[in-house]
């Protein structure tokens, strides 16, 4: 199994500023994350701080913001971890579930879980 990646639009809905990011799809992560660089470019405010257990069992405190992610007409908003400068962001389980998207590990792609079902979505102007 290789790396699964795709392009997501990340939006600050308070300022309507967006940026397209190539993000890693991490099915082991719960919350999405963005780098502090992206956080600053989009003009987010810190909404809270959370304790997160990392893969090695240690705990670290992260600032969070509320970010909106869109992919092929599917939109989801979530509490989002703010990582250090230059650290790559990820899409975790919360966004995948909200968008009704599955990961196809052998093709290294994501796809709609139920493409025949009409999916309600919002568009940003």
Short note summarizing the structure:
With 125 residues, this protein is mostly beta strands. Helix content is 10%, strand content 46%. Strand 8 (101-104) and strand 9 form a beta hairpin.
Structural features, described:
The protein has 2 helices and 9 strands; from the N terminus they run βββαββββαββ. It is mostly beta strands and 125 residues long. It has one domain (5-112): Acid Proteases (Cathepsin D, subunit A, domain 1). The strands form 2 sheets. Strands 1, 2, 3, 4, 5, 6 and 7 form a 7-stranded mixed sheet that branches. A two-stranded antiparallel sheet has the order 8-9. The longest helix has 7 residues, at 93-99.
Keywords:
125 residues, mainly beta, Cathepsin D, subunit A, domain 1, 7-stranded mixed β-sheet, two-stranded antiparallel sheet, 46% strand
Write the topology of this structure.
Layout: E1 5-12, E2 17-25, E3 33-34, H1 36-41, E4 48-53, E5 59-71, E6 74-82, E7 90-91, H2 93-99, E8 101-104, E9 109-112
Parallel strand pairs: 2-7, 3-6
Antiparallel strand pairs: 1-2, 1-5, 4-5, 5-6, 8-9
Number of domains: 1
Distance between the first and last residues' Cα: 38 Å
CATH topology: Cathepsin D, subunit A, domain 1
Helix content: 10-25%
Instruction: Give the percentage of residues in beta strands.
Output: over 45%
Q: Structural class per helix/strand content?
A: mainly beta
Would you count the extended β strands for me?
Answer: 9
Shape: globular
Radius of gyration: 14 Å
Q: From N to C, what is the helix and strand string? A: EEEHEEEEHEE
Low-confidence stretches: none
Largest sheet features: 7 strands, mixed
- Just give the CATH class: Mainly Beta
């Amino acid at each position: 199994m290789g790396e699964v990646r795709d392009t997501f639009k990340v939006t600050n809905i308070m300022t309507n500023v967006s940026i397209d990011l190539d993000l890693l799809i991490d099915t082991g992560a719960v919350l999405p994350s963005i780098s502090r660089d992206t956080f600053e470019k989009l003009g987010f405010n810190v909404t809270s701080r959370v304790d997160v257990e990392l893969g090695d069992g240690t705990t670290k405190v992260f600032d969070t913001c509320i970010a909106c992610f869109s992919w092929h007409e599917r939109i989801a908003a979530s509490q989002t971890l703010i990582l250090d400068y230059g650290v790559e962001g990820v899409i975790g389980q919360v966004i995948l579930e909200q968008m009704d998207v599955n990961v196809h590990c052998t093709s290294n792609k994501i796809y709609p879980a139920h493409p025949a079902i009409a999916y309600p979505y919002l568009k940003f102007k």
